[in-house]
Structure to design on (344 residues):
């Protein structure tokens, strides 16, 4: 089964992000707006039984921290993805590093670029129009991260939450 | 904000359910296949802070239990909803009762009919066709319930998981 780890930002951010995703994100119906902390990875039931206590441990070691968002950015020319750029922070990087070391396959394919996707799989012309209009826009969004979620993927490519890990609140 | 409490069945059941929902359920993109344990209710942040420890307590008091599914049923003529009927059990009823008493508004509007929706908002002719073909079908599905999820609703009516409560594993 395919699993992933993500953070769902607060409702205000999700609602704003969805106002763009609805029109521009091919994955709109597959998962709520999210910040990916670990890309999709293959794991069987036995592996998950080992990883869950590890995720609890990581959650218990982590203090709630703030994230801020001020602008959009893009993965072009690698892909036509447009996203809200989450300002990098040491706390976010530390959490990401813990989810890519020890019992977790530490093959982080690319450096961590914290982001919340607004648009993907657009044709070039639409991509240029949307990015052109969003790149000048100033955002002023903030959130307090106090948890993350382990999800698995269904056959239709949508994601279901398996378990939530709340910082400092897990029983091991 | 609107909250609800649900159980997501295992991937096998979800995949089977989605094969119907994709064509017949107007809520297909809004939430994964689920068994509703508490209908949508309004709550502010303060209330949720009180309810979360209560949900942990209920989860800790509950032992994992099995559910089985053998056939579809319908809410007609009240609504054209077609669902997988989850065979009633004392464990399921007890959990439902705990989520509708004490600190929880105990206004259960209708008796608890455990179900996983396959189809809703169909026009009458389509409803008759789909129910006609499904009502003779025998299902042989089973699952082990060991958790439930507290979700909140976004402005686009989709649902995001706020927290998971695993039976016997919550730290209070």
């Amino acid at each position: 089964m395919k699993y992933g780890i993500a953070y769902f930002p607060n409702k205000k951010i999700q609602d704003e992000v969805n106002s763009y995703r609805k029109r521009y994100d091919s994955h709109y119906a597959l998962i709520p707006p999210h910040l990916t902390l670990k890309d999709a990875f293959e794991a069987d039931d036995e592996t998950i039984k080992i990883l869950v206590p590890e995720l609890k441990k990581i959650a218990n070691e982590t203090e709630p921290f703030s994230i801020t968002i001020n602008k959009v950015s893009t993965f072009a020319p690698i892909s036509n993805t447009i996203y809200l750029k989450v300002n990098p922070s040491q706390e976010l990087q530390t959490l990401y590093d813990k989810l890519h070391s020890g019992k977790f396959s530490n093959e982080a394919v690319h450096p961590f670029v914290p982001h919340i996707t607004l648009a993907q799989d657009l044709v070039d012309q639409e991509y240029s129009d949307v990015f052109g209009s969003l790149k000048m826009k100033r955002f002023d969004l903030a959130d307090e991260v106090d948890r993350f979620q382990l999800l698995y993927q269904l056959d239709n490519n949508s994601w279901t939450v398996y378990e939530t890990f709340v910082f400092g609140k897990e029983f091991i």
